[in-house]
Amino acid sequence: MKQFLFSAALALALFSCTGNNKQTATSDSAYELDNLLAVADQKVDETITVVGYVTHTCKHTGKKCFIIGESQEASIQVNADGEIDVFTPELIGSRLSVTGILKEQQLSQEYIDEMESEVMLLQNGGEVAAETCEAELASISDMRQWMKDHDKDYYVIYYMDGMKYEVLD
pLDDT at residue 119 above 50? Predict the structure, then answer.
């Protein structure tokens, strides 16, 4: 679980703290990923449809993929569930319409402090490339700024338990 949260936090840092304020959807029931941000906090635990481009599929199990919006600033992890057995590597670059349940994970200030300490230990020990640590520390800084901007003592990460998908192009 800790590995999931750490990976999700770093991969999805931009999802929770960037995006435009448009609330338009691609149809009456499908949100472009970039537009979901404006209403995501109101849609948690609801079944929604989101449209985006696949950037990554899990090569070991195929049980998750990441999609981005048109702006390439927002990203969300989609877990295979329901009718989805796996996400194949052939989906990378495809535009998908994914229907599933929107979920949120709240990372506490204490957890973020722990993440930062772990990165600093890796950086000081030379176990990871300096660029990797710098990118992770920048993501942590972005999380802290989002918390300050939103007057929260936690950082929110949204993800989906995908029930089905359709390749749009």
Answer: yes
Q: Return d(Cα 55, Cα 72) in angstroms, integer.
A: 10
Structure tokens belonging to residue 33 = 């990923």
Task: Please tell me the number of Cα atoms within 13 Å of 105 on its side-chain side.
Answer: 21
Q: Beta strand pairing status for 75-80 and 95-108?
A: unpaired
Over the chain, what is the mean pLDDT?
83
Domains identified in the chain and CATH numbers: 2-107+153-167 (2.40.50.140)
Buried b (16+ CB within 10 A) or exposed e, 23-32: eebeeeebbb
CA distance 77 to 5: 11
Is residue 41 predicted with pLDDT exceeding 60?
Answer: yes
What does the alpha-carbon distance between residue 50 and residue 140 come to, in Å, rounded to a whole number?
Answer: 26
